[in-house]
């Protein structure tokens, strides 16, 4: 191999003035000799991974994508001496995908080698090697790394880290400005302008570092900075000169005026510090979220918290927006290549006609992509919209590259932010959504070699509106549905707000209007996100949209929430879902469901990333338990415990004082109304020793005869009941808000009853004495026989409960049991009340249940254990450990219960559920 010294290389090429085409291959070969690296022909004679004129085999000849290419190392473009290397770099950016996205993009004019990093998810860097640099050890090492070790150019800094730091710094500036009493929204608007100026300067939209120069020149003279910045804003508003620099026309409502809020010296110092960041590399998919937290005082605490990543957002954007386009693109590519082959072989008018058809096919698909309108009806600070825009732009770039490869000409991307529609009620998020989209668009054009938008740089995005997406009022003051724009695709992450919290968060008037407007379509107290699902479903039914992809709390799979998914299945279908997936909401990790649905046109279905035949309304693909029947024989057995909604509970000392009091004027003791109370915690974890005052259904005059309890309630409960949020219970203020009349009647004839937590990781049932009142967090069963207890505690019933109940957050947090969807649909071996007396199968279940309870009680309260040991032992801990003896007791019980059904003990979970479903439908009168 020929060896060349740095000095000999410099002497040769310093004097060369030949044009690029005449000398570039010899220049590159000399570089190979300089670093002792094989030339393309020496290393790869076939040119499949290392070659000159990479991609030169295009239709009708034509120059390759790069002058030199080495797979996994670099793409290299040459220009003549003193040529515009930026233009060469833009060319490489357009074609890098065709060259397998090499980590380094190199441009060279035979005097300067410019190395641009192209690593995924790292801040882009530029290195310059000039002829004289090759005389230095570090210069030669950089050249060797280019050929042998491209990883040496990688930086650890990521766009996410840059964006996080920028948001933290801006939060400090926002805090300082709020000290001076500036209006929060005016402050936010001003800071977003500063943000954009920093970005615009680093991507070259503001010329000659004009903003940085202004900062440096006035860093200790804030008043002058304010005056000068107003002039710069004025120039950005309409275009014009700022000093000797010509400023492009920006507009876009961001520079709708030239207002500048005053900054103090501390704020100026912070701005100078944040100026040092590389704003060209901020990450748009998280930009809006992080800056909303920095500008909105109510979200400042979330600054260091997690955020939704681009990869998570793609779980919705790809299958809902992009999948149909990609399928169509595969067909278009095949059609285009067939035309291109015929065009290559044709001559004269035939060739011209085929070229025209080829152009029409590719331009037509590009027009289809550019016509896709996307709505996020709860767009927040715009991250879903930005990711949708980027995916559309990336797809259109594939079309542009193929058109150039096949000789069908070239064109500028026509996908634009104007295709994006958003609805958002928060003023900070609304403004950030627009700038997030524009920054992302400008950044994409720059990073892909398409320059900058034509002036005005920022066009007003009137497609993003600040409004309530669910509720408006007509001229008569009546609630109406606000119109949503007609689009092809709806995507987004609507707000999660549990049914019990909606009224507290949004207020009585708002919620009453919402309930009235959506009555019959969304169950009252369903999660707030369900209203977005129903609105989107209605748009599908009205043919004003085509596909929808939304997030919801994973509780949408069951209970009242699931009704909206059932309506979706009635009028269309679900084609994509993730039933239970980690997500980040307001900085916190939560569990969500992702749901993609349409009018029933999509033929391909995917659940949790795998292809399936169908997706049920419970977001499962197997057995559909969403249409089970409520069995009449199961009614009036299972009840939710009474709900107090006021401080009726007592500590043990206060309760004992009442219980020791003399008889009341009615001759009755306080034990009539002062009772032990049990919550879910008391049932399966620590017993708290709480008591409660329970007047049941007594009228006020009779309740008042229990003197001490009544006075306690009048002192502690009455003021609460008179509050605006509780005044609806004021009529019977001395009673529990929901005393559960039917439950009390059903329990009256039993000497004990069964209870279970409403929400629990393990479905555990316990015996409760009749004097104990189980509250709203529990479910109680008006049965006192061991057989019934045994069936409830069997595996078969727990399987049914898990599939018909709803998961709270994750599996560890537990699932919800309900009297209706869970218990009233469960088919017992015999309908309750119809068990054959004396049947050995019934006796076997009762015996197994008794044995289970006996063993558990001995473990919970060993006779020789001290108080601390007993206190540490709980049913939850026992079932977490599930020792061998407990497992055997349950297996014995399971076998006895399955024998009562007449089913073998070897059935899988799905087989058991299938048989239970068939039994439910048969008892419900459905022909199988």
TrEMBL record:
GO terms for molecular function: nucleic acid binding; site-specific DNA-methyltransferase (adenine-specific) activity. Pfam families: MmeI_hel, MmeI_Mtase, MmeI_N. The keyword Transferase applies. It catalyses: a 2'-deoxyadenosine in DNA + S-adenosyl-L-methionine = an N(6)-methyl-2'-deoxyadenosine in DNA + S-adenosyl-L-homocysteine + H(+). It comes from the Bacteria. Residues 358-603 form the MmeI-like DNA-methyltransferase domain. Keywords: Methyltransferase, Transferase. Its EC number is 2.1.1.72. It comes from Candidatus Viridilinea mediisalina. Residues 7-176 form the MmeI-like N-terminal domain. This is site-specific DNA-methyltransferase (adenine-specific). GO terms for biological process: methylation. It is an enzyme of class 2 (transferase). Residues 187-255 form the MmeI-like helicase spacer domain. The keyword Methyltransferase applies.
């Amino acid at each position: 191999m020929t060896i060349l010294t740095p000095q000999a290389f410099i002497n040769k090429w310093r004097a060369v003035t030949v044009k690029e085409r005449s000398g570039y291959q010899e220049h590159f070969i000399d570089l190979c000799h300089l670093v002792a690296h094989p030339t393309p022909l020496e290393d790869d004679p076939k040119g499949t991974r290392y070659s000159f004129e990479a991609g030169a085999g295009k239709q009708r000849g034509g120059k390759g994508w790069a002058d030199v290419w080495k797979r996994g190392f670099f793409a290299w473009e040459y220009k003549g001496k003193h040529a515009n290397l930026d233009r060469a770099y833009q060319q490489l950016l357009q074609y890098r995908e065709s060259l397998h996205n090499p980590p380094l993009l190199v441009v060279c004019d035979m005097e300067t080698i410019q190395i641009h990093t192209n690593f995924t998810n790292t801040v882009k860097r530029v290195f310059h090697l000039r002829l004289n640099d090759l005389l230095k050890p570090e210069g030669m090492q950089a050249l060797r790394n280019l050929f042998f070790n491209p990883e040496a150019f990688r930086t650890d800094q990521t766009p996410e880290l840059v964006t996080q730091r920028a948001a933290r710094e801006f939060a400090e500036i926002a805090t300082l400005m709020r000290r001076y009493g500036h209006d929060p929204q005016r402050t936010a608007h001003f800071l977003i302008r500063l943000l954009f100026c920093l970005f615009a300067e680093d991507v070259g939209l503001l010329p000659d570092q004009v903003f940085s120069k202004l900062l440096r020149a006035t860093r200790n003279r804030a008043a002058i900075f304010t005056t000068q910045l107003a002039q710069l804003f004025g120039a950005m508003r309409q275009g014009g000169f700022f000093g000797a620099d010509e400023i492009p026309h920006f507009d876009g409502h961001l520079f709708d005026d030239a207002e500048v809020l005053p900054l103090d010296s501390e704020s100026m110092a912070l701005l100078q510090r944040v100026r040092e960041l590389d704003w060209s590399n901020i990450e748009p998919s998280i930009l809006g979220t992080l800056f909303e937290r920095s500008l909105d005082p109510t979200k400042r605490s979330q600054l260091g918290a997690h955020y939704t990543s681009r990869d998570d957002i793609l779980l919705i954007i790809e299958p809902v927006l992009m999948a149909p386009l990609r399928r169509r693109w595969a067909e278009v590519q095949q059609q285009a290549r067939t035309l291109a082959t015929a065009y290559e072989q044709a001559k004269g008018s035939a060739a011209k006609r085929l070229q025209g058809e080829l152009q029409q096919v590719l331009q037509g698909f590009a027009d289809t992509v550019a016509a896709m309108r996307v709505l996020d009806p709860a767009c927040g600070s715009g991250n879903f919209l930005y990711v949708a825009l980027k995916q559309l732009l990336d797809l259109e770039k594939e079309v542009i590259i193929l058109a150039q490869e096949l000789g069908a000409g070239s064109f500028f991307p026509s996908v634009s932010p104007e295709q994006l529609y958003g609805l958002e009620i928060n003023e900070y998020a609304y403004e950030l959504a627009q700038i997030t989209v524009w920054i992302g668009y400008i950044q994409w054009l720059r990073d892909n070699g398409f320059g900058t938008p034509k002036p005005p740089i920022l066009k007003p995005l009137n497609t993003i509106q600040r409004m309530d997406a669910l509720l408006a009022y007509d001229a008569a003051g009546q609630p109406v549905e606000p119109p949503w724009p007609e689009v092809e695709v709806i995507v987004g992450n609507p707000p999660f707000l549990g049914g019990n919290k909606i009224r507290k968060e949004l207020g009585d008037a708002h919620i009453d209007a919402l309930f009235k407007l959506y009555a019959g379509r969304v169950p009252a107290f369903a999660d707030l996100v369900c209203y977005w699902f129903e609105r989107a479903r209605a748009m599908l039914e009205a043919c004003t949209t085509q596909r929808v992809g939304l997030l919801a709390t994973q509780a949408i799979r069951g209970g009242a929430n699931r009704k909206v998914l059932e309506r979706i299945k009635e009028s269309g279908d679900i084609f994509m879902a993730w039933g239970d997936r980690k997500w980040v909401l307001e900085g916190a990790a939560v569990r969500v469901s992702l749901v993609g649905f349409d009018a029933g046109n999509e033929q391909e279905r995917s659940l949790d990333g795998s292809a399936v035949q169908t997706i049920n309304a419970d977001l499962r693909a197997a057995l559909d338990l969403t249409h089970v029947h409520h069995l009449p024989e199961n009614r009036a057995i299972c009840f939710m415990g009474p709900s107090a909604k006021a401080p009726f509970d007592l500590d043990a000392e206060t309760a004992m004082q009442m219980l020791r009091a003399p008889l009341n004027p009615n001759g009755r003791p306080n034990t009539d109304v002062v009772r032990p109370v049990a919550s879910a915690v008391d049932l399966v974890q620590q017993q708290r020793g709480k008591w409660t005052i329970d007047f049941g259904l007594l009228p006020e005059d009779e309740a008042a005869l229990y003197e001490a309890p009544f006075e306690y309630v009048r002192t502690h409960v009455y003021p609460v009941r008179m509050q605006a949020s509780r005044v609806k219970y004021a009529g019977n203020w001395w009673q529990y808000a929901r005393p559960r009349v039917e439950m009390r009647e059903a329990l009256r004839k039993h000497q004990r009853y069964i209870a279970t937590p409403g929400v629990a990781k393990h479905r555990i049932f316990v015996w409760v004495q009749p004097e104990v009142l189980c509250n709203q967090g529990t479910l109680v069963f008006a049965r006192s026989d061991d057989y019934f207890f045994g069936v409830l505690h069997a595996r078969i019933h727990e399987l049914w409960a898990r599939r018909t109940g709803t998961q709270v957050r994750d599996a560890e947090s537990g699932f919800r049991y309900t009297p209706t969807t869970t218990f009233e649909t469960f088919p017992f071996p015999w309908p309750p009340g119809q068990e054959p007396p004396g049947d050995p199968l019934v006796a076997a279940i009762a015996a197994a249940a008794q044995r289970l309870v006996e063993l558990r009680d001995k473990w919970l309260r060993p006779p020789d254990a001290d108080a601390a040991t007993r206190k540490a032992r709980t049913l939850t801990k026992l079932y977490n450990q599930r020792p061998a003896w407990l497992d055997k007791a349950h297996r014995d019980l399971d076998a006895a219960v399955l024998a009562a059904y007449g089913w073998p003990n070897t059935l899988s979970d799905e087989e058991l559920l299938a048989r239970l479903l068939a039994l439910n439908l048969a008892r419900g009168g459905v022909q199988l």
